[in-house]
Write a structure and sequence with these properties.
mainly alpha; 5 helices; rod-shaped
């Protein structure tokens, strides 16, 4: 008995169609993957700024809670000043900075920062809060 090792014409057609279907579904999947990647909205700077601002506001609230319990907590005062400066809330940074200067009168960096904040806000401040400068 002789066996015919070549596939019949119908089998050939089915094998070819199966290969084409497999290749086509793979191509369609890859195209869908790449087009969805290009269509997804990217994080724009406004969104990133909003996230950072909300984190800073949360930090500010946390420091304020600590300061309600411990009004002279220097770490919380420093953190509150930093958070407000990063949010460009110069007016809000003046009060905790003044308290830091009052608690640490020997810290020249606190006095200089307070003077700079007051200068930028236009408050000017008292003469004792400003670093000494010589006038000509």
């Amino acid at each position: 008995m002789e066996q015919n090792t070549s596939p019949k014409p119908i089998q050939r057609i089915l094998i070819i169609l199966s290969g084409i279907a497999f290749a086509g579904s793979t191509v369609i999947g890859m195209v869908g993957l790449y087009t969805s990647a290009f269509q997804e909205p990217k994080d724009n700077p406004a969104t990133a700024a909003a996230v950072i601002n909300s984190q800073l506001e949360a930090q500010e609230r946390g420091y304020e809670v600590v300061l309600q319990r411990e009004p002279d907590n220097q770490a919380a005062l420093e953190g509150l000043v930093q958070a407000r400066l990063q949010m460009n809330d110069l007016e809000g940074a003046v009060e905790p900075m003044e308290k830091l200067v009052k608690l640490n009168p020997d810290r020249a960096d606190y006095k200089a920062l307070l003077a700079e904040i007051k200068q930028r806000t236009g408050n000017g401040g008292e003469a004792s809060d400003r670093p000494e400068t010589s006038s000509k």
